[in-house]
Write a structure and sequence with these properties.
- Helix content is 98%, strand content 0%.
- With 121 residues, the protein is mainly alpha-helical.
- The longest helix has 119 residues.
- The radius of gyration is 50 Å and the shape is rod-shaped.
């Protein structure tokens, strides 16, 4: 029985060692896989942070451009108001001139009619 018990002990020892090797192999592969995934996640995070920095810079530039455009608009507003007032004045003047033209045409027609009547008589 001692030979048999020593064989069983050796077999148990071999099974324990084989399972240890399998566990270590599995742990090593999983650890390597986890490190790779962690590395990929870090790269993805760095890319996202870079994109965020770029978007923030573009946003800041857009805000500065908006402020500049608002200042330019404010400086152009008096000119635009003056041009609009000038356009309104010109419209009113054209309307008045049309009215005067119509009156003069009526007077001319009346004078021509009177002249024709005077020449027929």
């Amino acid at each position: 029985m001692s030979k048999r018990s020593s064989r069983i002990a050796a077999l148990i020892l071999m099974l324990v060692m084989a399972s240890t090797v399998v566990i270590l192999f599995w742990y090593t592969s999983e650890s390597s896989s986890m490190q790779f995934r962690l590395s990929e996640a870090e790269k993805s995070l760095e890319t996202a942070r870079g994109r965020e920095r770029k978007q923030q810079a573009e946003y800041d530039k857009a805000l500065a451009d908006v402020a500049e455009a608002e200042a330019r608009l404010a400086s152009l507003k008096p000119e635009a108001e003056a041009a609009a007032a000038n356009a309104d004045a010109q419209k009113a003047e054209r309307k008045e001139l049309k009215s005067q033209k119509q009156k003069l045409e009526e007077q001319l027609a009346a004078l021509q009619a009177a002249q024709e009547e005077g020449s027929h008589e």
